[in-house]
Amino acid sequence: MNNESSKMNLIAKSSISPFLRKISQNFQILFISKNSKTLCRHPFLLASLFSLTSCSSFFIRQQCDKINWYQQGYDIALRGERLSSDDMVNKCRKAEADMSESQLDLGFKEGMSRYCQPDGAFKTGRNGDSFNIDFCDSGSLPRLTQKYQEGLKQYCQNGEEIGSSGRVYKNTCPAELEKIFLPPYKKARVKYLKALVDSKSAQLQMNERSLASEREVTKRNEYRKALLPYVESGKPDQYQNERSYYENIISSSRSTIYRLENENRNLLTEIGNFKTEINALQ
Questions:
Q1: How many structural domains compose the chain?
Q2: pLDDT for the residue numbered 54
Q3: Which residue from 15, 102, 223, 269 has the fewest beta carbons nearer than 10 Å?
């Protein structure tokens, strides 16, 4: 009788649609979760119930918490940019992260004062960046412009070095220097990008092998969990520890799959962008 009952229970369980079973599992793990950090570790489960926007904001806020906001403002100013143009500042503000606006502003002002010194102007030119004259007092511009041009001349005479370093040319060289700069820059830049394509492609293949392994782990443990006897709701379940064990493995594997799939999408985008640039340079 017990064997017959077990068989009937397995038949009844298998007759439940995969969709309903998945939703049931999602709700079970969802209610176990205690806070947003735990929820965000189960993106596959949340995807069937909620938008991933809140999880995305959580991860962005984690990044923002690690930023030295004084240094961030200082670096933005040394690039000759405004705070409102910085991607990270905008992301953190949009995510309502706990960022120090006062330190950001203080660092930016200190960076501006450095930017508007002769050595700052020279460094801007040597880095191949444009010089933002709106940052500086008009009375100091002639001296600053002279130092900027001196630094830019050094930059424009080192096309091969710039191309092989990974730095992107920002069309700042004067026409007469650009003719000298571009040929070695393009050749070195193409070589650099091809190496990146090879490296990213190797990472992509490694991730695909890991994905295949994690999918097999998920499939195997879902099967093992399905073999456990069905227990009606409200009755003691002597197999609860085993179910929890398999659910934890499945949850961990799904999180890894999600991370790797997202990483592979980014890798494919990067590889595509690199190849497009290579074609444009050749």
A1: 4
A2: 58
A3: 15
